[in-house]
Amino acid sequence: MKIIIHGGFFSEFSTDAQTKLAKQEALTTIVKQSFEYLKTHTATETVVYAVTLLEDSPLFNAGIGSQIQSDGQIRMSAALMDGTTQKLSGVINIQNVQNPIQVAEKLMPYDDRVLGGAGATHFAHTNGFAEFSTETPERRAEFEKKLAATGIGTVGCVALDANGKLAVATSTGGKGFEMVGRISDSATVAGNYANAFCGVSCTGVGEDIVSNATAAKIVTRVTDGMPIANAFAKTFEELKPYDGFAGAIAIDSNGTIFHQDSHPSMVFASFDGENVEVFG
């Protein structure tokens, strides 16, 4: 069993040492708590659990603490992918729910598994998800001062369960001050992808990640027999012509945990039951 989570790039709120330490401590706690959950649950259940914990922390740009868009509203996106069934479900630009990843999970049994905008919000509110504002005073202050214009952040989790099955979940509150209707990579296979061989969750500039098809490329290359380190190296090399800004975490079916970013500042934590690795 293996698990790795990420909290996006270190750019939300501030870059002070106190915030950095708080993020590291939160990631350490969440990855350990999620590993305990993984012991008695599937990889798919666990990635939803882990991302829910990340969404519930105002330290990260997903769920509570999501960025505010150019019209003063918060719109969030999240996706879940089961590496065994190859099903992906997700919500794009959903509003007024606490945990978008749980709404994505609720959509998994449906034929129409990716919903956007008002349709996603309506689905949530008619399926037991309460009206909830994820805005925090810090995000409102950022919006008013336009300090969040360069904020980049997402959260994600990849898990390998006791039965050797992989799953991935990713959630984001956007980049801040984006145009209304902008779609990030998080609820697409460019930013969130898994099969029986590998699972990948991305963070960074969504447009760059979509242009590169980052998660899908890495997983496809591992599936075709390329070592995970080589798959990452080749895929990230393909970001360079346009200075693509991205980071990714992954686990392959052999239990190899891997991570890489194009502009070092991604925050993540991994745990294998014995060793915790925290960076950022």
Number of strands: 12
Strand content: 25-35%
Q: Report the principal-axis shape.
A: globular
Radius of gyration: 17 Å
Terminal CA distance: 24 Å
Question: How many helices?
Answer: 8
Tell me the series of helices and strands, N- to C-terminal: EHHEEHEHHEEEEHHHEEEE
Strand-pairing-aware structural class: alpha+beta
How much helical structure, as a percent, in the residues?
Answer: 25-40%
Low-pLDDT stretches: 147-151
Largest sheet: 8 strands, mixed
User: Could you tell me the mean pLDDT?
Assistant: 92
Strand order of the largest sheet: 4-3-2-6-5-1-11-12
Report on this structure.
The chain is an alpha+beta fold and 280 residues long. 31% of the residues lie in helices and 25% in strands. The protein has helices spanning 17-38, 43-55, 100-107, 117-125, 137-145, 206-212, 214-223, 228-237; strands at 2-9, 76-82, 87-94, 114-116, 155-160, 166-172, 192-194, 198-204, 246-252, 257-261, 266-271, 276-279. It has an eight-stranded mixed β-sheet. It has a four-stranded antiparallel β-sheet with strand order 7-8-9-10. It is globular and about 45 Å long.
Can you describe this structure in just a few lines?
The protein is of the alpha+beta class and 280 residues long.
